[in-house]
Amino acid sequence: MSTPTAKRYKQLKMVAWLIIVLGGITLVVFPLVASHLSGFDFESDVTSPPDTPRDLANRISAEHFTKVVFYYLLRLMYIWAWFYPLFCLLVGTLILYRRFYTLSVLGAALVCLGAFPLGAVIGGWALFVLCNRDTKFLFQEQSELREADFLD
């Protein structure tokens, strides 16, 4: 029969590898989608001419505002398309090597937000595993080993 610590260690390794794989998949998919959408140009459907010059001004300002909003949303999506996969790879590596417990927990929470159906499941499971006392002990044990190696 395995001890609870050994069980948590196996779960921690599994979560870390799943997050790393998720980061690799999203590193391929997200930038492709974002680069495809970066050439997107919003064109409005103006079918009837404006009645007055004021209507024309209102329509032009609304179109300009919409284009500006879409421009910045697409830029934000492009930044997120590169940030999220790289952050998943970092968090998976931190969990795999059991370093920086607090950053690992925050990273698992961020994994929940990025790629909705799969990221939410993996990130939720990572939070469940990371918030266990046995898991925190594994992180502390690893940091003590690093300190002992440094002193030798």
From TrEMBL:
The keyword Transmembrane applies. The chain crosses the membrane at residues 12-34, 77-97, 104-128. Keywords: Membrane, Transmembrane, Transmembrane helix. It comes from the Bacteria. This is DUF4064 domain-containing protein.
